[in-house]
Amino acid sequence: MAAIYSLYIINKSGGLIFYKDYGSAGRMDTNDSLRVASLWHSMHAISQQLSPISGCSGTELLEADTFDLHCFQSLTGTKFFVVCEPGTLHMEGLLKYIYELYTDYVLKNPFYEMEMPIRCELFDINLVQAVQKDRVALLGR
């Protein structure tokens, strides 16, 4: 069973620009993945406004019985979140590394238009390697 079920990248306006499914059970169709991304974007924005702590950046972790959702928001407002097995550790580091891949391979791509869906082969290749490396590290512990 995969430690990471899926990865989402949402632009600052709440549009889903990247989705990758890593689990074999419970695969979602395109409409469902768009709904999840939109729902998370809204919940994240509401949590920023309702937080009693000033300067709160929003919800970073949502724990449920069957999954955990870890979120990293960049300074530009782009959100990266993974849905993974409950109790999976070190997702913050993985999300920050995915953000580095995004800046290196997507944002520096002269053919990429900001806020549009990500279609970058080098990003996909390096993302697969990062997730595989993370799975190996998790299984080794």
TrEMBL record:
GO CC terms in record: endoplasmic reticulum; Golgi apparatus; TRAPP complex
Primary subcellular site in the record, as a coarse category:
endoplasmic reticulum
Name the record gives this protein: Trafficking protein particle complex subunit
Species, as recorded: Cucurbita argyrosperma subsp. sororia
Q: Where in the cell is it found?
A: Endoplasmic reticulum; Golgi apparatus, cis-Golgi network; Golgi apparatus
The encoding gene: trappc4
**Keywords of this protein's UniProt record, alphabetized?**
Endoplasmic reticulum, ER-Golgi transport, Golgi apparatus, Transport
The text of the family note is: Belongs to the TRAPP small subunits family. TRAPPC4 subfamily.
Offer one Pfam family short name for this entry. Sybindin
